[in-house]
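Dear Dr. V.,

Thank you for agreeing to look over these. As mentioned in my earlier message, I'm a first-year student in the group and I'm still getting used to reading structure tokens, so any feedback on how I've presented them would be very welcome. I ran two proteins. I've put each sequence directly above its structure. The first is here:
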Amino acid sequence: MTTPVIGVLALQGDVREHLIALAAADAVARPVRRPEELAEIDGLVIPGGESTTMSKLATLFGMLEPLRERIAAGMPVYGTCAGLIMLADKIIDPRSGQETLGGIDMIVRRNAFGRQNESFEATVEVSGVGPVEGVFIRAPWVESIGAQVDVLAEHDGHIVAVRQGNVLATSFHPELTGDHRVHGLFVDMVRTVG
């Protein structure tokens, strides 16, 4: 597979920025809103946004179960911030009715680094990528991981980037920096599976 087709879950969040980053990383990028569009992609990005809203919209649009099925079947997925929360097997203190897609054997804490006014940027050393500027906006962190999960980055002693098989997740937003290396890592993961 030379140029993979990668969708961005376009229910809520920073979809446009991911479409741009994926295109810059040599993928064909397209928004995905309906279950039938899942069959047309080789991989998927779940953007940052608001994880509770995203969960409710995924249910409303009939996307929750089809997404779970594709992830369980091995489709490569990358989640940033709220996307990391959506890919967790468990959330500490989830909002009422909040669902996840699963895919990574981890427990996450929502808004762990603080509220909106406590957002920050910091250089993060990402395994396989190098130093990247991490934009943390109401960011979660990973409390604990299972044996099959690889930690790719930490910040202030907290896990902020992980990978389990074909599933990648970061607490921070690389799509907001103009540095497309993390997206490039994901595009390479999709190529390897294809």
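The second protein is here, in the same arrangement:
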Amino acid sequence: MATTKTSTKASGSRSARGGTGEKRTRRQNAEKGFVASPELSAHLQAVLVDLLELAMQGKQAHWNVVGRNFRDTHRQLDDIIDAAREFSDTVAERMRALHAVPDGRSDTVASSTTLPEYPQGEVDTTETVDLITERLEAVVATMREVHDGVDEEDPTSADILHAIIEKMEQFAWMVSAENRTPAGR
């Protein structure tokens, strides 16, 4: 009996609890889970590049904003930048969890973002508010454009988009309020 046990162990066919034999446990196969289709990967990549570009343009605005209400605008840009960075990391890590490969290289971001180029040099706070609002809305538009395809294939990724959309729309509302006047006046 001891000989049989040893030979079975050596051949690797023993099915021990915890999985040292042929039958693998669910935990051992976790890395083989759901795999994103090329379409889902492309949708999440589109969101990723827009979030990365938003963070970069937000920094450009942050460094070069001048004028009335500078301090509040400067600080609000930091909040947007931090959120865009955090969300881009969440999207990239979700892609990796689905065996997709995120591409955040600068040339990829520059060639595939939907955000318009940010102006060079100092920018007045009023114009900065309008420019950043436009970019926040562009990021949201990308997510809304890909949402149905993402939701159809992977509701979990769609839930991530929902959270990002909610925060980006809140930022757009709060930033744009700087340049608004009360309705009816």
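From my reading of the second output: Residues 2-16, 23-29 have pLDDT under 50 and may be disordered. The first strand starts at residue 65 and ends at 66. Does that match how you would interpret it?

Kind regards,
E.
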